[in-house]
Design goal:
single chain; 237 residues; alpha/beta; 7-stranded mixed beta sheet; globular
Length: 237
């Protein structure tokens, strides 16, 4: 959604933030082991106990401490950082749109004309979108749209400045998952031996507890997707 120019290292750290939790992940190409990528470090923490919490930052000192402690512990001071936000404050929609490019202006207009939408959301939104299934047989395709207010994005930019982070991208957790599944799809294409490979099958756990719940599985998949998005963003610059 929002890109910044990376500065120093190729290390990529994903920071997945919900209104109540933060997950920090450091994933890198493997130099040895059966899978092509290593989970170098992974930390999941509760940051808010109130069920009604939102993504607005009310305690930047707490987030600053958690992020910088993780980076200092693993000597990642100059790593490239990618934020993923999910929860109240992020708008996520699916819509059928004409190919080959989604008409974002038409989508925004349609969205803000929905009953009650304009009353609860600012029209100062930043949008991104992704084609979920592109087929030659149809003139329309399903698209995923995500939007964040400029105010929310600015808060996380300020957090990055406060923490002295090399922030290169802000996106959503869903977009990270889509990137991970796209990678898996490309890996399986034309390769019968790769059909049974899963996202976790791409990762060497390196002593980290193997996932036991759907939440744990999603956290690792999102972390892997953030690594792929971060690598993509880094290489673009």
């Amino acid at each position: 959604m929002l890109n910044f120019i990376p500065r120093v290292t190729k290390d990529i750290v994903g920071v997945n933030i919900t209104p109540r939790t933060i997950t920090l992940s450091w994933i890198a190409p493997s130099k040895q082991g059966p899978a092509p990528y290593d989970i170098k470090a992974l930390k999941q923490l509760l940051i808010e106990t109130r069920p009604e919490a939102t993504l607005r930052i009310f305690n930047p000192t707490r987030l600053d401490t958690l992020i910088t402690t993780f980076l200092e512990k693993h000597n990642l001071k100059n790593a490239c950082i990618i934020f993923a936000l999910s929860g109240k404050g992020v708008i996520e929609k699916q819509a059928m749109m004409k190919k080959p490019v989604a008409d974002l202006e038409a989508f925004e207009q349609k969205l803000f004309n929905e009953p009650g939408f304009a009353d609860t959301h600012s029209n100062q939104m930043v949008w991104n979108y992704y084609c979920l299934q592109d087929t030659k047989e149809h003139h329309e395709a399903p698209w995923y749209f995500c939007g964040m207010s400029q105010e929310l994005l600015f808060q996380y930019q300020l957090l990055a400045i406060r923490c002295k982070l090399n922030l290169i991208h802000i996106t959503t957790s869903t977009m990270a998952l889509l990137q991970a599944h796209l990678h898996l799809k490309e890996l399986r294409k034309g390769n019968p031996e790769a059909q049974k490979i899963t996202i976790l099958g791409n990762l060497n756990m390196n002593g980290h507890k193997r996932t036991t719940t759907q939440h744990d599985h999603a956290a690792l998949a999102e972390g892997f997707g953030l690594y792929l998005l971060g690598k993509q963003t880094y290489e673009m610059h």
